[in-house]
Amino acid sequence: MEGDDETTSVTMIDDEIYINGGGEEKRSKPNLSGELLDVEVYAGLYSGRTKVTRLMFIADRCGNQVMKLDALRMAYEEIKKGENTNLFKEVVEKIDGKLGSEYCLDQTWVDTVDRKAEVRKEKLESELNAYRTNLIKESIRMGYNDFGEFYYSHGHLGDAFKNYARTRDYCTTSKHILQMCLNAILVSIEMGQFTHVATYVSKAEQTPDALDPVAIAKLRCAAGLAHLESKKYKLAARKFLETGPELANTYTEVIAPQDVATYGGLCALASFDRAELKSKVIDNFNFRNFLELVPEVREIINDFYSSRYASCLEFLENLKANLLLDIHLHDHVETLYSQIRHKALIQYTHPFVSVDLRMMADAFKTDVSGLEKELEALITDNQIQARIDSHNKILYARHADQRNSTFKNVLQSGDEFDRDVKSMLLRANVLKFDTGGYHRHPHHRKF
Amino acid sequence: MGRFRDNKYNKPGLMLFVDEISHKHQQRRDEEDESDQYHYYQRPKQVRMESIETLVANIIGLSEGKTTQLHTLLKQSEDSIQNMASQLGQSLDQLDPEKHSLGYLFLLEAYLSTPAAKEQAELIPSVARFINSCVAEQIRLEPRKFTYICKTFTDVVVQRQVPIMGVAPLRIAVRKLQPSSEHLTALHSEFLLVCLLAKCYKTGYSILKDDIFEVDQPRNLFLYCYYGGMICIGQKQFRRAIQLLHNVVTAPMQSLNCITVEAYKKYILVNLIQNGQFSATFPKYASSAAQRSLKHFSQPYLDLATSYSTGKIAELESCVATHREKFESDTNLGLVNQVVTSLYKRNIQRLTQTYLTLSLQDIANTVQLNTPKEAEMRVLQMIEDGEIFATINQKDGMVSFLEDPEQYKSCEMIESIDTSIQRIMSLSKKLNSVHEVISCDPAYLGKAERHRNQRFEMDDFDNVPQRFNM
Could you tell me which CATH class the domain B355-405 is placed in? Predict the structure, then answer.
């Protein structure tokens, strides 16, 4: 390479790097939740059983005594409002008297609730039997539905699911089917049975009558969760992005609108290419409303799109601790993060013929040798077409010579053909012994 | 195999040969039994008790242009020749091996079957003289006798531990017995065995350049390919070795045999050295016997392939250490060491894909070599062998990797491409003609028909099933 070329390309990179990393201070930085999660605010986003399970999940994972007890206290209070005595006992066991006498095992409450439950169950049973003898479809459906609700509120998820599923035979209108599906989805999500979730979502979408926007939004969220659990991040991202603003706070027993923004945004970053990111995320009016609820994710996406990788990765790092406490996302954080980072590296190198590794390392807030290792892995994976000049710390793009590689491939397949045909002919000749036509040496077949 | 452990032939690498030799003896005995029966049926009513003199005179008289008549006569008097086998030593001297090849062949065969003959000191040169000067047309009238003589010759040469004396005669013997270079004879494997023992790999390799298509006995093919594979390994012709061993592993067979098992082990190792990977899935044309149980016999080798695929020297070496005894007793330890070396090379080669320049220190670190000096030596060796394209800057301790300079523009390249095209065209013609012959072969058609009747419900009217699965 000529000396002139090199200097121009380097200055060009210099400018670019300056834009990439340097402009960061000038932008107004939104106040990020780099500090610990505010459990109370978080819990306020949810209702019902998921609130309790999310709180307990946080208590299990956070590793911070104050936060843990905080979460457990709220869970305790939430359960007291309901009728789930098993969960209550579990929480009390976890609190282990550390919150004082106020939060101990309230045996009288447990007994009352259990007694009431017994009475109610008997009542429901006799009602259901009466309906069944009368053969009134609608009443039977209601009966099973009541049973489902009863089991759900008492924490018997399996039985609840069975009863909800049983209502299916007695559904007469699309509305009933939708209700049945939503109930089944709710219970399945609580049980962690995401294959059920996917089937019931498709069942609900197949109902003949048009669904109302709220229901559609709920189904999209559920489908998104199912895809997320099965690691299909691209599909998950699509579903979350399609979620309408009608969702608002109507589905808090499963998901908060903030979650839609976080899940959708991160999955999109990890799996979409640049064009898709622009058209489906940044220019998506509906989704923008969700993103406004979580400014961190909005900033991450904007930074990523405008190639401010340093700040993008910084935001991501800040969010990480909290995302790990999310009941649905925690398993996928590492994978999503590494995919986002790889995409950032690939996108960074893409437009250049040569890249100075030191500047690139600056832009990614890492050191040169670490970056070299990451790049090496990506090149070996054939995700970046480039080679590293380790001496001068420069990455050079590499364009495969189509002509040469074609020649090489042709010669290679010629050789392979040659070899395969020869051994095939040989085998064919040996096989003549098996066809029985060449029994001149029968005793040799003993071999 | 264990009972051959104390055998004097048990030099490294010979265990299987010994096994084979004992096999051969067994088979030879079978053949002899059969020829007895043959005599019984063919024996003429009036047994002519010819004397040696008349016999020799007949041979001399009839050898001039009347070989057919002589052949019949000799066959009729085979029994009496056998009876006077022990006295034939002197009469052989009266015959000229070139002029009277057929007669010489009959007498020599009978003579060699006596135990006394095998003890004779002059045996090797005299048989070698016969092989050198005999006439191909005459000995091809009795290929079995000629094969027997050569096999006995091989045994003697091996027993007296002078395998090198067998190399040249057996090479001539192979050529004389072969109707064309595509034919495999029973002597191919004998020749290769002697070459292996005498370490004359180059001579052995010369015969392996021919492509073999015509096979009379599958067993010859197995041994030919196995020994051939070993010779190619000795010559570092790994590509050809893989091809030969592949033939053994995928050959049609009813039940598994020792040769295939040993060949499969070497096949794994050579694949690792040459291609850097080994896929344990068999092609679907491999026999079910091989698919079923080969892996079971070669687990340490498969473990080695797995640890090789991680690309980590430490892991590979610990695997070698675990199975060291097994490799050693299989006499494959040398090859295993070559596998380890090849991993270093492969790791260095991988670096050329990702780096333009890299310091020797970094190379040493990445491929787990102890010193930059060692890395330099390895890189240098690889550049010399044309395995990578690079220059070493000793002052800075840097290596610059270059692209493959081959541009596919030179006359030589075009010529070599042209020869490849010609080769493939003639091969494809051959393939078509073989296909035609097979589709007209009544035996094949009968079998295919039966096959189809068995599963007629499958509605399969393609009358050349598994055409490409053979």
Answer: mainly alpha
